[in-house]
Amino acid sequence: MPKPLFSHVTTWVFDLDNTLYPPAARLFDQIEARMTQYVMDTLRVPRAEADHLRHQYWRDHGTTLAGLMRLHDIDPGPYLEQVHDISLDHLDPDADLAACIRALPGRKIVYTNGCGPYAERVIDRRGLSGVFDAVYGVEHAGFRPKPEAEAFTAIFALDGVVPETAAMFEDEERNLAAPHAMGMRTVHVAPAPHAAAHIHHHTDDLGGFLARLI
User: Fold this and answer.
1) Which residues contact residue 64 at a Cβ distance below 8 angstroms, ignoring those fewer than 6 apart?
2) What Pfam family does this protein match (any one) (predicted)?
3) What percent of the chain has pLDDT over 90?
């Protein structure tokens, strides 16, 4: 993996879920169950329909929340609080990952489609508190979700990110399309590679990948 390809990077942007912790922790199983329950309760539909709508809204609008806001005018606050009220017992601290991120030259931020308070809980549980310069949730983008280009533009303007000197680490391949178009170096963090023009690198081991850059 060519280290020189990252020599220009001064800002390192990390997704949260299934990126800063391994998918084996299965936190999103809990979140998805709570999303389905929220859709059932709010729209008064059976579980099968709620599951269908949850996935349809994610596919068509970027997140289930975005679909619920656009089509049903729901208040995002209670939704975000409910779906992120999960157990983090399956998360372990990762001192090696913390050391690698801390050693990266420049600014380090987290940007998630989840909410900021949830992100802070996960970061703390992973032993990554104090490693990042800033943490941004979907609320900081006006509830516009990744993969929308406008969401990235809002967060990067807020933080002062210059995309041409930044790298994005993300488990959801479609969320790397806008960063690539903006001029960022993109890294797909996932168990299996996905061939796409907007993905520069793939890794199934974030800590190991970063260790080769420092």
Assistant:
1) 35, 39, 53, 54, 57, 58
2) Hydrolase
3) 94
Taking Cα atoms as reference points, which of 192, 185, 193 lies closest to residue 213?
185
Tell me the pTM: 0.94
Tokens of 130: 């104090």
Q: Which helix (H) or strand (E) covers residue 201, if one does?
A: strand 201-203
* Residue in the block written with tokens 């406008």: 150
Instruction: Set out the domains of the chain in order of their start, with CATH numbers.
Output: 3-22+92-211 (3.40.50.1000), 27-83 (1.10.150.450)
Q: What is the pLDDT of residues 151-190, one digit of tens each?
A: 999 999 999 999 999 999 999 999 999 999 999 999 999 9
Residue 195 has pLDDT above 90, yes or no: no
CA dist 43 and 200 (Å) reads 41
Task: Please give the Cα distance from 149 to 202 (Å, whole number).
Answer: 22
